[in-house]
Design a protein that fits this description.
This protein has one domain: Divalent-metal-dependent TIM barrel enzymes (TIM Barrel). Helix content is 44%, strand content 14%. The protein has an 8-stranded parallel sheet with strand order 9-8-7-6-5-4-1-10. α4 crosses α5. The radius of gyration is 18 Å and the shape is globular.
Length: 302
């Protein structure tokens, strides 16, 4: 088990400034990280070179910096949008960015590409229709990922911020059933601890249900809908339960931070010490996950 962090840990800077991805990799490497998650969604939303005709040079630059610093990428986060919404105006662009994220992940030899499912709010049978539309949308994406040398991984979502509406795959049972519906295709599940806490889901029951489908994680804490994705032990998550659940299912994959709100308001002068502290917290979490750990090998999907 290794500690990893998303590039978004250094991406959001005070004053609305967005850091370059290579800067995030460098700062994290200097703090002691050797494994990272490349967040392509940030690169799409804030129009980094990823969305331009210069994207190949951009990804080459990231690969060169990572190699120089001894950093590898264990997973990525693709761009996403609600493709179930027929009225979405930017569909062609977003579809292209999702496939570009997959292609870049394959180039960097990233094994898992995490992405969000869409939700069909126009249907009177939201769950059934959403499942059907997601299967239709993702079948070619999964095939494209396989050809690129990577795999698609679906994340448990949350929907308290849009209540009383629901999001497809916010329910763990729906997520597992959806992942299984691809009949042996190389797909997996990413468990987001923050989302589970916000949804008041029992992590032990959730992870038992996910079982060996679990190949990636988003590790963070939360206090409320307005204060999420912060460092573990800073919020309301029950980390004793969470780490016990990882032990119980024999999870041997990585713990990967998604804690962008932990650092987004910090002055640059405090960033390096904050990153070092996040490593201390992560190493403690790993020790808790390893206690009495038994069984299971989650190095591969399927």
């Amino acid at each position: 088990m290794r500690l990893s962090t998303s590039t978004n840990i250094c991406f959001n800077r005070p004053g609305g400034i967005k850091a370059d991805i290579t800067e995030s990799v460098r700062r994290c490497a200097e703090a002691g990280y050797r494994v990272m998650d490349l967040n392509f969604h940030d690169c799409t939303t804030f129009r980094l070179p990823f969305v331009t005709d210069g994207w190949e040079k951009w990804i080459d630059g990231i690969a060169a910096v990572a190699a120089e610093l001894g950093v590898t990428f264990n997973q990525s986060h693709a761009s996403f949008y609600n493709f179930c919404d027929s009225g979405y105006q930017n569909r062609e662009f977003m579809d292209a960015m999702i496939l570009r994220a997959v292609k870049c992940s394959g180039f960097l030899k990233i094994p898992y590409v995490v992405i969000h499912a869409g939700t069909d709010y126009s249907s009177s049978s939201m769950r059934r229709s959403s499942a059907e539309k997601n299967r239709e949308y993702f079948k070619p994406v999964i095939e494209y990922a396989s050809q690129a040398g990577t795999s698609i991984v679906f994340e448990n979502l949350w929907d308290l911020n849009i209540a009383p509406r629901r999001r497809f795959t916010a329910d763990i049972e729906d997520l597992v059933e959806f992942a299984d519906s691809f009949s042996g295709a190389p797909v997996g599940i990413c468990y987001d601890t923050d989302h589970g806490t916000l949804m008041q889901q029992d992590p032990e029951k959730s992870l038992q249900l996910i079982g060996d489908r679990l190949v990636a994680t988003h590790i963070s804490d939360c206090i409320s809908v307005e204060c999420d994705h912060i460092l573990p032990y800073s919020g309301k998550s029950d980390w004793e339960k969470i780490t016990r659940a990882f032990r119980t299912i024999g999870y041997k994959g990585d713990l990967t931070y998604e804690v962008h709100r932990y650092t987004q308001n910090l002055p640059d002068e405090l960033m390096d010490s904050a990153l070092r502290h996040s490593i201390d917290v992560g190493e403690y979490l790993i020790r808790q996950c390893r206690e009495n750990k038994t069984g299971g090998n989650h190095d591969n999907i399927g």
